Every structure is written in structure tokens, then in C-alpha cells.
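User: Sequence recovery, please. Input:
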């Protein structure tokens, strides 16, 4: 049972070989972090049985009071709540902590039956505190009707 960066030791068909007009950036991004390996940019968890589980992008990291925390890690905990359909966590500049966290979530149903938004926000913060750590709880929680998407969804 180990977590770390997903790196690949051999080339494969269709692998990127450069970035157009910026080969130095390609080398720096993918080949210098772990010499001899291609760094994919993803985190991975390997079980004792040898199975791999991708844990998310390693560049989606928020540094809160010296603690490095992946946004996908927090989103995963929040998305397991019965009232949450999907969520997004972003960092923002914070005067004391360096970075703070804001959680936006889309409820399963408008009438989710969990009382006020404040009650549900407090419940989500407590869930994150128990499953990850106190410092991982977001500073702000907001309900939204739509989360921004990339072109690929």
C-alpha cells in the first residue's frame, strides 16, 4: 500500500515527444522531475495486491498553513454525502494561511431535506474534518446550480 507520483519507465505508441515550439518546457515538465521516467502529472495509489488507483492531478494542490492538500481528495469526501451531486474545491489567497479553500457543490435535489444551507455547510465541514483533517475543512461553502466544466466535461 503506497501512494506517489505516476511515472512510466518506457515509451509507448502515441506518446508525446515534445511540445510544439517549446521542447525545453516538455523536458522540464515531463522528464526532469523523475530522471529516467516520464512523469504523467497524476498521483496514484497502489494496493498491496498490485492494483493501481489514480488519485488525481498532482498540480491541483492547495498549500494550507504548510499542509499540501489535493483538491480531488476533498471533493471525493464531499461527493460521498447523500445530499451532494458534485463538487469543486478551489484555493484562494489567504493572508494568514497562505491559501484558503472554498467549496462549491451542486445538491442532489433542490429540496434535499437537510434544512438550511448553513446546516449542510457545517455538516460537510465536519465530514471533511473527520475524514481528512481539521485544516482541510473549507473556509467558505456555497451551493450552486452549475459547476464550470472543461471542454471534455
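Assistant: Recovered sequence (153 residues):
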Amino acid at each position: 500500500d503506497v501512494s506517489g507520483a505516476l511515472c512510466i519507465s518506457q515509451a509507448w505508441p502515441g506518446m508525446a515527444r515534445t511540445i510544439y515550439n517549446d521542447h525545453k518546457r516538455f523536458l522540464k515538465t515531463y522528464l526532469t522531475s523523475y530522471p529516467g521516467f516520464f512523469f504523467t502529472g497524476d498521483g496514484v495509489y497502489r494496493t498491496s495486491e498490485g492494483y493501481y488507483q489514480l488519485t488525481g492531478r498532482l498540480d491541483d494542490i492547495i498549500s494550507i498553513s504548510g499542509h499540501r492538500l489535493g483538491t480531488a481528495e476533498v471533493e471525493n469526501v464531499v461527493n460521498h454525502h447523500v445530499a451532494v451531486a458534485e463538487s469543486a474545491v478551489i484555493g484562494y489567497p489567504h493572508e494568514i494561511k497562505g491559501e484558503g479553500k472554498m467549496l462549491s457543490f451542486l445538491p442532489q435535489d433542490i429540496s434535499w431535506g437537510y434544512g438550511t444551507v448553513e446546516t449542510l455547510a457545517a455538516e460537510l465541514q465536519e465530514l471533511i474534518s473527520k475524514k481528512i483533517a481539521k485544516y482541510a475543512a473549507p473556509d467558505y461553502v456555497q451551493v450552486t446550480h452549475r459547476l464550470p466544466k472543461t471542454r471534455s466535461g
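The beta strands are 2-8, 38-46, 52-57, 61-64, 67-70, 84-94, 98-107, 140-143.
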